[in-house]
Design brief:
This protein is mainly alpha-helical. The chain has four helices and two strands. Strands 1-2 form a two-stranded antiparallel ribbon.
Length: 111
């Protein structure tokens, strides 16, 4: 019981790994991460990886949503998962929004 704490009458595991979540929880987190990251990329008008301060804002926002759904997982695990998916997210942005990607790239070339 050294890796557990009691919160609101529930026993929570403090060293939980991302892989220990239910498949539906993993899928929901992945979907939300992609949505949030893509929104931030549109906002910043970029087709590349986000700078650290914007990336951290995306991860914090995702973690808030995870807590609101009462999924318990340490922040570090969510952060590690987000880092591992960054390249795939950037590539998927170019596939999901091809016209926007071309437009953004053209803007950067003209600068």
């Amino acid at each position: 019981m050294k890796n557990h704490i009691k919160v609101n009458g529930k026993l929570l595991q403090t060293n939980k790994r991302f892989s220990q979540l239910k498949q539906s929880q993993k899928n929901w987190i992945a979907t939300e991460l992609y949505k949030l990251y893509h929104e931030k990329m549109k906002e910043r008008r970029t087709t590349r990886k986000l700078p650290p301060e914007h990336r951290d804002a995306v991860i914090s926002s995702l973690y808030e949503q995870i807590q609101n759904r009462e999924i318990w997982i340490p922040y570090g695990e969510v952060e590690k998962y987000a880092f591992s998916k960054t390249t795939k997210i950037v590539k998927s942005f170019k596939k999901q929004f091809p016209m926007l990607s071309v437009e953004i790239e053209a803007e950067h070339v003209n600068k």
